[in-house]
Amino acid sequence: MTTSLTTSAHSAVLERFAAMRVLPVIVIDDPDDALPLARALIDGGLPCAEVTLRTPRAVEALRRIVGELPDMLVGAGTVLTPAQAAEARGAGARFIVAPGFNAGMVEFCQSVNLPVFPGVCTPTEIEMALGAGLSVLKFFPAEPIGGLPFLKAVAAPYTTVSFMPTGGIGPSNLASYLAFPRVVACGGSWMAPNDWIAAGQFDRIRDTTRAAVAIANSVAAGGRA
Ligand code: 3PG
Prior knowledge:
By secondary structure, the chain is α/β, with parallel strands linked by helices. The chain has one domain (8-214): TIM Barrel. It is built from eleven helices and nine strands. It has helices spanning 2-20, 34-44, 58-68, 82-90, 103-111, 123-131, 142-145, 147-155, 174-178, 194-198, 202-222, and strands spanning 22-26, 48-52, 73-77, 96-97, 116-117, 119-120, 136-139, 162-165, 186-188. β4, α5 and β5 form a beta-alpha-beta unit. α2 (34-44) packs parallel to α11 (202-222) and α4 (82-90) runs parallel beside α5. The longest helix is centred in the C-terminal third of the chain and has 21 residues, at 202-222. It binds 3-phosphoglyceric acid (3PG). 3-phosphoglyceric acid (3PG) binds at residues 25, 52, 77-78, 140, 166-169, 187-190. 3-phosphoglyceric acid (3PG) binds next to β9.
């Protein structure tokens, strides 16, 4: 029973990632910015966000979005411990993302049927994640570690694994990542950088999000390379 619940929660989140193809990564200081930010992402065409737990009030920001905009798919990122995962879950996070593979944190998420996407970049890390029963993994930090050529090389032996590249992705390289069939979606902060949020530049966030959606749509229209 636990397994099937895990699978269904995981599949539901994955289906939405695969449909949207882009996951905005958010660093938010002031929870009062959470709702205008979330609405800008929705208006831009991406009703989803990874709220990183890098700021003291990130969980409060996440809680406000979940409370006011229940149809938005909101998860927590930069989750480093089981306690942080539990706190994010309590605030309504629908998924958990981490920069690396932390076995204890992953086990906690699996024990409570919370979809988890740990970060990997080497074959050993991919095999650790496979050993934990995971096959959709964040590829981080995508560009600094070697970009798409590195991802293609490291993905080759692991034919059942799919990736969510994040780190250094933006309008200039999004299409090439999305065209690689092993990529479910790309994450990134370029649509809503922290300084735009702090400056209240929500129209700019909406427009940049809209442009990202247009890139994803153009890849879908052109077929996958
Ligand atoms: C993350 O937390 O996933 C990354 O810091 C996002 O990377 P980016 O800021 O280069 O998009």
